[in-house]
Amino acid sequence: MTNPNPLTMGQQFGRRSWAEPWKIKMVEPLRMISREARERALVEAGYNTFLLRSDDVYIDLLTDSGTSAMSDRQWAGMMLGDEAYAGSRNFYHLEEAVRRHYGFRHVLPTHQGRGAENLISKVAITPGQFVPGNMYFTTTRLHQELAGGQFVDVIVDEAHDPEVVHPFKGNVDITKLGTLIEQVGAGQIAYVSLAGTVNMAGGQPVSMANIRAIRELCDRHGIRIFLDATRLVENAFFIQEREPGFADRPIAEILLEFCSHADGAWMSAKKDNLVNIGGWLAVNDDDLFEELRNLVVVYEGLHTYGGLAGRDMEALAIGIEESVQDDHVRSRIGQVRYLGELLTDWGIPIVQPVGGHAIFLDARRFYPHIPQDEFPAQTLAAELYLDSGIRSMERGIASAGRDAKTGDHNRPRLELTRLTIPRRVYTQAHMDVVAESVKVVFDVRDSTRGLRMTYEPKYLRFFQARFERL
Ligand code: P70
After folding, report:
1. Contact residues for 210 (Cβ-Cβ < 8 A; gap 6+)
2. Distance, CA of 192 to CA of 177 (rounded, Å)
3. CA-to-CA distance for 52 and 393, rounded, in angstroms?
């Protein structure tokens, strides 16, 4: 029977459809294995999606990190690699792109984000100091702790509640930050560690008003602000969309203004910057840079390559240019929202509002009968893979690790399973397949049982931990 009144998805959601500002030039075939084969693969992987082989995955939403599609211009740039050990021309292109779009004076390449986190933590933290931040990120906090710092969460309370709708759930609570400074003294604060968007909160943004207020407070106490710029372009999109006075300003301009309130930034270029590998660290202060430039040769490589090939730096320089284009960001976040709209319409519990890079399924409400110690979010990731070969990532109690003092699990309020959307890779039809699989898993939720951890590594346990079904 033909549908007498066919509607596009845009019409069904009451808006004009958007489309990607690119067309496809090359394709990579996907493979889908049988349910029995997935069952075997999952047991072999200890119910941990990080331990699956990607050949056994159909739609890979593990991460948006290093998984984006590069453009024809970026691939052309790969052929222009100047693989000189020192002073590669590609480094100067990268330096220029970071200066132009992020506004910081000094730039160092690193092999990826955590390489930059290591350097800034070692140089800017004196053991015993506190590092306030807008919610923890796994690698960021670990490097701060390894450098002798103590992370303190100063994000607004709303960030910890997946149901509260707030336009800037990534904001720092200025009162919390002010109280911490009073309690421990400004000299005991290493710096403010500010991420936009906030990954663990669901890709939630920080407003321009908030960074201005943080700057004001920090200036009064002589405290520096360093940004985790990993998804700062996406953060700028939310400012353009939601903050009064920014609707007519291009994303590139908003990004630059945001960075102008900070003293430096570290970057996992594998996200916003549209490359498969790479990172950078950028600061304004000459003396600080001097120290960082010295340290980079110990851990990454000479200061003009920092662990990257010349061709990687060229692709990254071009990726930065492409990443700040308004039409690119609009369609990227539009696709994430499309998936979010479907799931919301079907009554599936997700973090609201939908953030920039992923849909975060709320495993607490998805599986209210599974206690947090039985890893509801890890369970949900396993069930999704079993149903359709879709790979997602746990962002709950397994990711939160253990309390360094008591040795007990950290028990985050957010127990989430992340469906992370790579940039420029999947189509709207893939999003439909994903939504349908989540619905199937949701419909049989009552009969799903949790997991028990059978192997636990010491550092960043979620990457390599193993589980079995209860
Ligand atoms: C993800 C990736 C990486 C990341 C990040 C923020 C806000 C720094 C980094 C580190 C990869 C990942 C990392 C740890 C656990 C799971 C997944 N996030 N800051 O998938 O950058 O990976 O380049 O060293 O999101 O969210 P890098």
Report:
1. 168, 171, 172, 174
2. 9
3. 12
How many CB atoms sit inside 10 A of residue 83's CB? 10
Q: Model-level pTM?
A: 0.96
* Cα angle 177-179-181, degrees, rounded to a multiple of 5: 70
Whether 149 has a pLDDT exceeding 90, the answer reads yes
Q: Using the mean position of ligand 1's atoms as its centre, give its distance from the Cα of residue 64 in Å.
A: 9
- What does DSSP assign to residue 358? E
Q: Which helix (H) or strand (E) holds 468?
A: strand 466-469
From the candidates 391, 395, 418, 424, which is the catalytic residue?
395
> Residue 415's pLDDT is what?
97
Place of tokens 């929202």: 337
C-alpha distances in Å from residue 270, one per residue of 50, 66, 319: 17, 4, 10
Confidence of residue 9 (pLDDT cuts 50, 70, 90): confident
- Which residue type, as a one-letter code, is found at position 344? T
Map tokens 């960074």 to a residue: 211
What distance in Å separates the CA atoms of residue 427 and residue 128, rounded to the nearest whole number?
48
Query: Candidates 68, 112, 137, 391: which one to mutate for ligand 1, based on the most atoms within 8 Å of Cβ?
Result: 137
**Beta carbons within 10 angstroms of residue 456's beta carbon:** 14
Active site residue 40: no
DSSP 417-449: EEEE--TT---HHHHHHHHHHHHHHHHTGGG--
Amino acid present at 113: G
How big, in percent rounded to 5, are the helix, strand and coil portions of the chain?
Answer: 45, 15, 40
Q: Is 395 a catalytic residue?
A: yes
Per-residue pLDDT tens for 385-428? Answer: 999 999 999 999 999 999 888 999 999 999 999 999 999 999 99
∠381-385-388 over CA atoms, to 5°? Answer: 135
* DSSP bridge pairs for 388: none
Q: Whose CA is nearest to atom 27 of ligand 1?
A: 113
Q: In whole angstroms, give the CA distance from residue 21 to residue 330.
A: 9
Instruction: Encode pLDDT of 192-205 as tens digits.
Output: 999 999 999 999 99
How far is 316 from 90, CA to CA, in rounded Å? 9
H or E segment at 37? Answer: helix 35-44
272 within 8 A of 232, measured Cβ to Cβ: yes
Does the active-site annotation cover 137? Answer: yes
